[in-house]
Amino acid sequence: MNEQGGHGADARASESRDDGPDRGHDGGSGPGDAARTRLVIVDDDALVRAGLRLMLDGAHGIEVVGEAADGADVTAVLDAHPTDVVLMDLRMPRVDGIEATRRVRSRAGAPAVVVLTTFDSDEEVVGALHAGASGYLLKDMPPERIVAAVRAAAVGEPVLSPEIARRLMTSVADAGGERDRARAALDALTGRERDVAVELGRGAANAEIAAALFLSVPTVKAHVSNVLLKLGLENRTQVALLVHAAGLD
Predict the structure, then answer these.
(1) What domains does the chain contain, in order, with CATH numbers?
(2) pLDDT per residue over 124-154, tens digit each?
(3) Are strands 85-88 and 37-42 parallel, antiparallel or unpaired?
(4) pTM here?
(5) By three-state DSSP, how is residue 105 classified?
(6) How many CB atoms lie within 10 A of CB 12?
């Protein structure tokens, strides 16, 4: 549903209480309030935005700092309000969620993007993740799962609803021509980086990777950064996609 009576930076963006630096790629936090997750909601349905704000604002340290009624309006909201996570709808009238995600993730110090939608076609799921989304959730998820997903994305963790994860793995497994290309890309990694990438493919958090590989958490973070840099990827979810495509999960 299109919001009536507004466009451009239509974003009923609320006043942010913290003008500190943005969080960078993969959830790195700036010197602002690390316990607070600053969220922007993007959805063309005003009722959905209002419901999400009611559900999320103030929930476990989440602050909704802005809203946008279309993907075309997101960059103006982000210019005005330091943001850690963008909760993004997919189908909007002017700029869709995939293109908007691409624009968000191309910014310096880009916030994480989590898609929240009713649509789950393979094309849309893979398109959003390749555009740089950290996660993909369906709107019928329980509220507590959406809250947990926002907080996870803020610290660089991938977030996929179970249904999407199953479909994604099936879709990747069926794309036989991708396996050789994915394995060739992973050959650029050192042995330890490859181990870390495989753990990312399993959805492991930094602490879990550290325990599995007998490494410190700072060392895991350094390896994750190297993996992203060498593979030319934006986030851990894209690494997981590559690992699944290579058949190494």
Answers:
(1) 25-168 (3.40.50.2300), 176-246 (1.10.10.10)
(2) 888 888 888 988 888 888 888 899 889 989 9
(3) parallel
(4) 0.67
(5) helix
(6) 17
Beta bridge partners of 228: none
Which of 146, 179, 168, 137 has its CA nearest to residue 62?
Answer: 146
For residue 9 the two structure tokens come to: 């930076």
Question: How many degrees, rounded to 5, is the angle at CA 91 between CA 27 and CA 9?
Answer: 70
Phi/psi at 134 (5° precision): -80, -20
Distance, CA of 241 to CA of 237 (rounded, Å): 6
Alpha helix locations (H) across 18-70? 46-56
Tell the residue number behind the tokens 């997981």, with chain if given. 240
**CB 70, CB 10: distance < 8 Å:** yes
Q: Report which listed range, 71-85, 106-120, 135-149, is most confident.
A: 71-85
What span, in angstroms and rounded, lies between the C-alpha atoms of 180 and 210?
A: 28
H helix or E strand, kind and range, residue 198: helix 191-201
Q: Which residue has the tokens 């809250």?
A: 147
**Token output for 94:** 């002017």
Structure-block tokens of residue 232 = 């030319």
Q: At 37, which amino acid appears? A: T
First and final C-alpha spacing in the chain = 39
Strand intervals (E) in the chain:
37-42, 62-68, 85-88, 112-117, 135-138, 159-160
